[in-house]
Structures are given as structure tokens and as C-alpha cells.
Specification:
Layout (H helix, E strand, L loop, with lengths): L17 E6 L6 H12 L2 E3 L1 H12 L13 H16 L7 E5 L5 H17 L2 E8 L2 H8 L2 H5 L6 H8 L11 E4 L5 H9 L2
Parallel strand pairs: 1-3, 1-4, 2-3, 4-5
Helix pairs in contact: 1-8, 2-3, 5-7
């Protein structure tokens, strides 16, 4: 089977430079799949916690009742600006994997389009992937101790609140995967077969 993300035979079978966008709720397996893409392709992982934790950690989110998530929006937007700028200046052959959870809101649509435009400016392929899983699957995963070590959401109550919000619908060109039924290896196979 031919792999459309690989260059033709004789070119070293290297990865066609790509910007992979993995969108899904907490515990859907975004980082796990991103790390597998990194292992197989050499793509640079730009996990949503790279952006969020740059603000959440120093502001003391979850350490003080005086700090609320909404108070971090403007700061996180500024970090995103820097991340986008740094990605744009990366050498042309490099691929990137971005992970993010996006609610169904105009700002989320704009974020996807911003990343799509970034891929276009870099001259790389844009590969949007929407990850989903049933609520029970996500709730079973959310309190995994590894998540706490990486500063990820571990509170089932907070996850229920997030799951009550509608996820941004997948664009027409997105691959939609149910991580409750496919393994990370199978997910990456499907992504690379696009």
C-alpha cells in the first residue's frame, strides 16, 4: 500500500513535511498518538500543555481558588502567537504535530484556520485529525497517574463539565478516529495512510 505522506521511492522515503493537528477532549489520547507520530516520522510534538502550562504553572492554576481558567485566555493567546511564529520559522523539511481540545466556538474555528494557514505558509501538508471516545472510556482514563505527572486534567468532575460542552465539529477534510476502539498504533497507521 502506498503511503501518501511519504515521498516517492528513490527519494529516501522521507516524510512529506506535514502539520498534523490532533483535536480531541482530555484523555482522548492526543499526546500518546502525537508521540507515536513523532517516533515514526520525526515530527516535532507541540502539545497543548506546552502552551497552557507556560501560563497555568506560574499563575498557580489549581493551587488557589482566586485563579480561574478564564483569566488565562489572553496570556495563552500570547504564548500561541510565539509558538506559531517559531513554527513558521522552523526549517522547511520539519513536520509538526499540534494537539488541542477545541470547543464549538468561533475562536476555535479561527484557531484551526490559523494552523491551516501556517501549514500553507510553510509549504507543508495540513492533516487535521479529530479524536473521540465515549464518555466512560475518557472517564476511565482521566485519573491515570501518568496524566498528573504531565500536568494534565485528572479530575473526573472537571472532565464531565468539559464533555458537556460541544466539541468543534470536524472539518470536511479531517480524519475522525474513535480512540476507544483503535489503538495508538492503528490511529497512526490511519493518519499516515491519508
Amino acid at each position: 500500500m502506498s503511503d501518501p505522506l511519504r515521498r516517492p521511492a528513490g527519494s529516501g522515503d522521507e516524510l512529506v513535511p506535514s502539520l498534523f493537528l490532533l483535536v480531541g477532549p482530555p484523555a482522548a489520547g492526543k499526546l500518546t498518538i502525537a508521540r507515536e507520530l513523532e517516533r515514526r516520522t520525526g515530527a516535532i510534538v507541540v502539545d497543548n500543555h506546552l502552551v497552557n502550562n507556560a501560563v497555568f504553572v506560574p499563575i498557580g492554576l489549581n493551587r488557589s481558588p482566586e485563579v480561574h481558567l478564564g483569566a488565562t485566555d489572553a496570556l495563552r493567546a500570547r504564548v500561541w502567537d510565539v509558538v506559531i511564529e517559531a513554527t513558521e520559522t522552523a526549517p522547511a523539511p520539519l513536520s509538526h504535530v499540534f494537539t488541542v481540545w477545541l470547543s464549538d466556538a468561533p475562536a476555535s474555528v479561527a484557531h484551526v484556520e490559523r494552523l491551516r494557514a501556517l501549514a500553507e505558509r510553510r509549504g507543508v501538508r495540513f492533516v487535521p485529525v479529530w479524536l473521540q471516545a465515549g464518555a466512560e472510556t475518557l472517564l476511565a482514563r482521566v485519573d491515570d497517574p501518568d496524566r498528573a505527572e504531565r500536568g494534565k486534567l485528572t479530575d473526573p468532575g472537571a472532565l464531565r463539565e468539559i464533555l458537556a460542552l460541544p466539541l468543534l465539529p470536524a472539518p470536511e477534510d479531517a480524519l475522525v478516529l474513535d480512540t476507544g476502539t483503535v489503538s495508538p498504533d492503528q490511529a497512526v497507521d490511519a493518519i499516515l495512510d491519508r
